[in-house]
Design a protein that fits this description.
Layout (H helix, E strand, L loop, with lengths): L1 E5 L6 H9 L9 E5 L3 H15 L7 E5 L2 H5 L4 E4 L5 H14 L9 H25 L4 E4 L4 H12 L3 E3 L3 H12 L7 E8 L2 E9 L2 E2 L1 H6 L1 H4 L3 H6 L1 H7 L2 E2 L4 H4 L1 H10 L4 H15 L7 H14 L3 H7 L13 H14 L3 E8 L12 E9 L2 E4 L7 H23 L2 H10 L6 H14 L8
Parallel strand pairs: 1-2, 1-4, 2-3, 4-5, 5-6
Antiparallel strand pairs: 7-8, 8-9, 8-10, 11-12, 12-13
């Protein structure tokens, strides 16, 4: 099988390739094509993959190209992991938002909207090319904001595009671990949008173990989300939120922490990865070792400001090993070999959540087989969650409408309607600020 990775010069690509190296079964990926606009980044990542494959018999071959059509043609699977505007763009998203006193995180609030506005036109073009050049391919979307981007692509690819994220998987794993259960044997009742979901139950052998966790303050406060949100708040919710909901529930504290930080997350990653790619210009550099050292630093500092605000301390060692590449591999196996499994994915609603229409992309457990991902019926959301999900989905729809029409007025509406943007005037200034720093938003008129 041929796997095409868009954004193939990206820093996380070795995680995906490492997962492929562990797959020895018949029908596995035998050819990987990396596509990126930057030949230098492609060269650096190709070197890392070559060192990963050293000594591995029949490792998937790796080729690299800057020609998008060449990369897509004949693909069986396409991983979309692009970053329009690069990490400099992410840093600008954060800077413009924080100057207005609102959140600039890449998937949440003003930053997520800005990122979506400049990403949607690009991924729509990719979706159209996939439909033309590789109509039988399955697209697995890593590109953030993952739910919004998956919905944009689904308008051209239907159910053949599936969004993935490692946050729900990590959350379910942590809850199962603290309850003494095997994560592989637990059913995680999770529902919401990407980076806006809640675990409402965790069933082992048919028994929901979450009430036991919520009733035990010691257990509840012993893992990442308990430390981040606080025991009292989780008990009040009666659920365990995705870590990204910290930006909603503790928004003032998060904004203040990011304003006071030496660097925003985007600026930190930009500088860190610039060093990595600079080091990789040395032909004698140990590519895999250099990449692994950089990755470890990246994972250890993930959401550091939020954890500092909450007094949550450092991340647990078990949470530093990634995870989304394992979701991607399990998804590919299920589709390519009909190895049926259950995964939490971003797919079209199809009536799963009654408060949203059929085409809305949501994040829920899905049964996956050779015919794709099928969302599992879930109980209705509680009112507090319904309000957030509907508000944020409405914002996503305005982003899609603005990207399609090029309407600046609609873009302002998207910002103004977001729960974390508190003024129409702020929304207008955000659009002005973002169009000044992002040439790619020049289409907004």
């Amino acid at each position: 099988m041929k796997l095409t990775i868009l954004g193939g010069g990206g820093f996380r690509v070795p995680l995906v390739y490492g997962a492929l190296l562990s797959d020895r079964a018949e029908g596995r990926v035998t050819r990987v094509v990396l596509h990126d606009l930057d030949p230098g980044r492609l060269s650096a990542v190709t070197r890392v993959l070559a060192e990963q494959a050293a000594g591995v018999p029949d490792a998937p071959t790796v080729t690299a190209t800057t020609d998008l059509d060449e990369a897509l043609r004949g693909a069986d699977f396409v991983f979309s992991a692009i970053r329009v505007g690069g990490l400099e763009g992410r840093a600008n998203d954060e800077r413009v938002a924080l100057a207005e006193g609102v959140l600039g995180q890449e998937t949440v609030g003003a930053g997520g909207i800005a990122y979506g506005l400049r990403t949607v036109p690009t991924v729509v073009d990719i979706a159209r090319r996939v439909a033309r050049l590789a109509p039988d391919a399955w697209v697995i979307n890593f590109t953030n904001p993952a739910g919004l981007v998956t919905e944009a692509m689904s308008r051209h690819l239907g159910d053949r595009v599936i969004g993935i994220c490692d946050s729900p998987v990590g959350l379910g794993r942590r809850i199962a671990r603290v309850l003494g259960a095997d994560p592989k044997e637990a059913w995680i009742d999770y529902v919401g949008l990407n980076h806006l979901g809640w675990v409402r139950g965790l069933r082992v052998a048919g028994r929901d173990e979450l009430p036991r966790l919520l009733a035990d303050a010691g257990l509840l406060g012993s893992f990442e989300e308990g430390k981040l949100f606080g025991v009292d708040w989780l008990q009040s919710l009666g659920a365990v939120p995705n870590e990204y909901l910290h930006y909603y529930y503790f928004n003032r504290e998060a904004v203040r922490a990011y304003q006071e930080a030496d660097k925003t997350r985007g600026a930190f990653l930009r500088d860190q990865q610039d060093r990595f790619y600079q080091e990789m210009k040395d032909p004698a550099a140990a590519a895999l070792k250099t990449w692994d050292r950089t990755r470890a630093e990246r994972e250890a500092t993930y959401m550091a400001e939020n954890r500092e605000t909450a007094g949550a301390g450092e991340r647990d060692a078990d949470d530093l090993s990634g995870g989304y590449e394992k979701v991607a591999l399990a998804l590919m196996r299920a589709i390519a070999r009909d190895e049926r499994t259950t995964l939490i994915l971003n797919v079209r609603n199809r009536g799963t959540l009654s408060v949203l229409d059929a085409e809305a992309v949501i994040e829920v457990p899905c049964l996956v087989d050779a015919n794709g991902a099928h969302p599992v019926s879930v109980d209705p959301l509680p009112d507090h969650a319904t309000g957030l999900v509907c508000a944020v989905k409405a914002v996503e729809r305005e982003v899609l409408a603005a990207a399609e029409s090029g309407s600046r007025t609609t873009a302002v509406k998207a910002f103004a309607l977001h729960p974390l943007v508190d003024s129409v005037n702020v929304a207008r200034r955000l659009v002005e600020g973002y169009t000044q720093v992002h040439p790619g938003l020049g289409y907004l008129k």
